[in-house]
């Protein structure tokens, strides 16, 4: 632990004061779409496989079911919100509990569940991932002086179509220019839907599709208030989130992209020659004083997934989360849509959530989804805060505003509240202007938004703002373009600053203007906010699957919103720096798009396996990747490691999974044979007893109820050259682990080999998780799988 100096520059330990300041918690409010007071609400009836029925016959079937439940054809028509008819069968309708119960009892209905609301969860990041290794900086990929390695092999993701469910897109951004792109693939069936300030003319060879889905939202919250929100009744992006994620996944090359000069460089997506189709499913909720309250209803999202599969997207990137506890797969709209997507060969990437570092907070848990955690990159924006006693706090900031090169009065917000109340978190109208005017204010991270705290300081007459982080954030700070001079400091430095203020009657501080620095070590680090495992639904499937850059990412932004998102902030930027697993997801999806182009016949499971088994485990100091707390990261933090696109392009072996694998998984988690036939249209007997969940041909292994011993099986497919693979084992503590055979011989691509993993308890873990791994190696390819075990 660091020490601080007294006001007279002498040095003292702060150990005796730690207990005073180590109790700050970061609280995120999830949006629950339904309320008990509603007489009717939106339900989603999922009927499973579409078969060969004509869409009009499917609609007629839905209408008959609704008429029987509501009592008349007119009532059925009024209740209906969406038909799901292209890729699977189902409908969304506004129903009473009794009507919903009636439909639930009808033959052929797999599930009928309330539509809930879900929440939203790069100039250097791709270079940090080694996707671009250029001998000269040149944004023209056709230049003979460029040396882009993986990008050239993947043709820059050419013609791979990425569908995003998000807040929309700002089509005028340079990231979506269609320079050097070939004509739109003929297989594309999507449209650019006409709406408010967006029509077909705004689409091009980069942005080839744009649709909006608002019916579910409006049934839940009433008609969209365009006047109050400034929203567009179209796929145009008011918020900025969707523009950011789209450009991260597949934005074109844009030179000199930056936010107020910070992070300057060439912006680009993972698949810069790929195509984008935006499915706008997320809308603002009022009252919205902080400017960050958006909701994405499941009814709308399922309609978007149904259309996207039919439109012809090659993969989905979905940076949308869910509140805990997680619902079973047949009552989870994203899981349902994703399942039908993978049946069509469409990989689905989803964010893991921003509720970390608390355990068992990860969502998007279906085994057919690629669930993505967030990590840092090797770039920072240092803006030190120098205390009056000479102590330097390692602040970071992207505020464009600067204080003079001198010391200013410093106070803690906790002692500056109205009527002497605790205002430490600088929430709206909490600060006393008499106490704050002309001072720099230290506010604590917690409730409310980071940018909203800065605004509160400014409104109260403060001249600058320091954001203090709690122990749960560890060494990590998230940055924002504050509306006044400001910087953010880590948890240790926050304790030092608070103690300095407590001891010094006339505390002062100087804030050094921010700069951009690259090459920061260690990197990557797993973000504190990134949601963690274990899997709260099926702990024998490890989640998250993989990690990707998600902290302080530079990407395109809307011109309809400020960089802070605050309604009172009228600034505009072309590129913004934000953080979240929302930013990590399109990084992984962009990498997946490159693999799709290099290996067009690979299944979604093969793409997922390649990314997982080649994940990076060490940082740029060649040491194990850590979490923000400084502890070594494990499978519940970052799955199989950080995405490594170059290695993933040539993984050697993959753990492929076919439809039957997932159906046996559904059997094991409780679905009946009759239900599985409805889901897929195929017969599958769940008797005799199906294999355990641990036997799913997954690229990682988890056994969480190990009594004495257990054997699980895996099958690998050779996607490299002929050769021999030998296995090495790092057994979890207290577990004896044997793999047979321990050598696999391959004579050609496509050959499959099966092996067994025998686990035996040598010393009980007493209900705690222990971790290990096994790795196949042929002299060139490293194919690693993490192992998680919990024994009695």
Short key terms for the protein model shown above:
single chain, Alpha-Beta Plaits, about 800 residues, Rossmann fold, 7-stranded mixed beta sheet, 4 domains, Glucose Oxidase, domain 1, globular, 7-stranded parallel beta sheet, disordered N terminus, about 25% strand, about 20% helix, alpha/beta
Task: Give an overview of the whole structure.
By secondary structure, the protein is of the alpha/beta class. The chain folds into 4 domains: 4-29 and 382-515, 3-Layer(bba) Sandwich (Glucose Oxidase, domain 1), CATH 3.50.30; 41-114, Alpha-Beta Plaits, CATH 3.30.70.80; 154-378 and 524-602, 3-Layer(aba) Sandwich (Rossmann fold); 653-657 and 697-791, Immunoglobulin-like, CATH 2.60.40.2310. Helix content is 21%, strand content 25%. The protein contains 20 helices and 40 strands. It has a 7-stranded parallel beta sheet, with helices on both faces. A 7-stranded mixed beta sheet has the order 20-19-25-21-22-23-24, with helices on both faces. It has a 5-stranded mixed beta sheet with strand order 33-40-39-35-37, with no helix packed on it. A hairpin with a 2-residue loop joins β10 and β11 (262-267). α2 (55-70) packs across α3. It is globular, with a radius of gyration of 27 Å.
